[in-house]
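pls design
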């Protein structure tokens, strides 16, 4: 049984990846009807949320028939992230997910999304603070590293685990690869099978046959 916090997801759950301009409520409804076990909202800017920006606040809309659902946020400033975590908690999702994977320039130039892969210490301390400031299970979605010379995903996974995240989704590319090129699934397998790695669930974007190869129980599409 895969569990995130106290959320039971069955033996081989299928997750819907967060996708900006795609994973909105109508799309999520279709995915739920088609058997999706856990879904995430589009990513939401913490700076928009704390300023009550319509576009950001609207993305907090979740519906009972979608549960369990995670709300995903992105940002870089500790205080804004903590305030946003409170806002997210008030919206009552099952999970608060942090985006450390978005590769687009306007996000990474502020050290948000995958930008934070350039400063792993900051990623860990931000995550630590968010875990402490919410009673929701906190999960993280990230990439292998900033570029091919700075791949530290095994260390990142261990350190995020130590500050209390409940699950980790890994996009098997670096920020430099954006959305192109081959994903390196072998590293995802290494993280999952690290003897020091105690997560009971590890979600990732991975094909079904490879999932079996590394005993990975959760698939995100
Ligand atoms: C249109 C689009 C929007 C996306 N938006 C988000 C997002 O808001 N948050 C996030 O964590 N990932 C986002 N992603 C990344 C996906 O969740 C997923 O990790 C990625 O698409 C996997 O790589 P693949 O498309 O090569 O399978 C987005 C991807 C696409 C294609």
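designed seq:
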């Amino acid at each position: 049984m895969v569990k995130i916090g106290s959320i039971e997801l069955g033996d081989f759950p299928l997750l819907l990846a967060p996708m900006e301009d795609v994973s909105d409520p109508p799309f999520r409804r279709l995915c739920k009807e088609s058997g999706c076990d856990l879904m995430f909202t589009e990513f939401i800017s913490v700076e928009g949320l704390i300023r009550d920006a319509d576009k950001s606040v609207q993305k907090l809309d979740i519906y009972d028939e979608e549960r369990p659902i995670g709300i995903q946020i992105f940002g870089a400033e500790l205080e804004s992230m903590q305030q946003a975590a409170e806002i997210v908690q008030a919206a009552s999702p099952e999970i608060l997910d942090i985006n450390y994977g978005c590769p687009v320039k306007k996000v990474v130039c502020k050290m948000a999304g995958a930008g934070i892969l350039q400063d792993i210490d900051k990623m860990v301390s931000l995550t630590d603070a968010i875990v402490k400031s919410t009673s929701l299970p906190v999960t993280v979605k990230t990439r292998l590293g900033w570029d091919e010379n700075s791949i530290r995903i095994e260390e990142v996974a261990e350190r995020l685990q130590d500050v209390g995240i409940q699950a980790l989704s890994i996009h098997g590319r670096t920020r430099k690869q954006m959305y192109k090129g081959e994903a390196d699934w072998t590293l995802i397998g290494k993280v999952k099978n690290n003897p020091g790695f105690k997560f009971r669930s590890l979600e990732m974007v991975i094909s079904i046959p490879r999932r079996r190869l590394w005993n990975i129980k959760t698939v995100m599409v």
